[in-house]
Amino acid sequence: MLFWTQLMARPAPLPEEEITIVEAKDSVTGKSTVRIPLNGIETPIKGQRCYLEATDEGMRLLDSGGEILTAIPAGEIVTRIHLPSFWGTSSLMIEWENKEEPFHFETKKDVVQQVRDLVAVSLKLHPEAAIEAMRKRGFYSLAIGGVCLALGVVVTFTSFAAAGANGRFYIMTGLLGFGTASLCRGLYWLVKAANLKSKR
Length: 200
Known about the structure:
Elements: H1 2-9, E1 20-22, E2 33-39, E3 49-55, E4 58-62, E5 68-73, H2 77-80, E6 81-82, E7 92-94, E8 103-105, H3 109-125, H4 127-161, H5 173-198
Antiparallel strand pairs: 1-2, 2-3, 3-4, 4-5, 6-7, 7-8
Helix pairs in contact: 4-5
């Protein structure tokens, strides 16, 4: 019964839609635009068609009605758009302002490749802004990771020192694990920023 309930809860597949590219000479704004259809797979856009529009200035994510869900400045594209990878997310993930839960989309091969190309182009066109965004993300992650790791170590050693006759004490695996992961994430962004700067 549970299987059929889950099957019925799945959204109907969305119709296929091509990626559209408008050259600057054909655009009413005089700027080239890439419009990529994305299929949402998690709340709040599960089962909905969204669109990622890219210009020289950055990107913006639109819902099916054309309303802007989030705007991404060119420098932040590399830190807010996450391509599927073995070590990261299995979906195409886009962060939005002041929200903890990001948007998740299907990972169609042509879509992922187009987004990857756009991220690479953005890095070439706006290296300084990208470096600043990566450093900001890196230092933020290092700060959060350092605090969590230090707190986890202090609480663990305090608990160990105060252990009773039965020798029971607590290891703050949650804080230690999250802190270590945040430190690694921070180092990743700082190294990536340094590599980009060295190539300029």
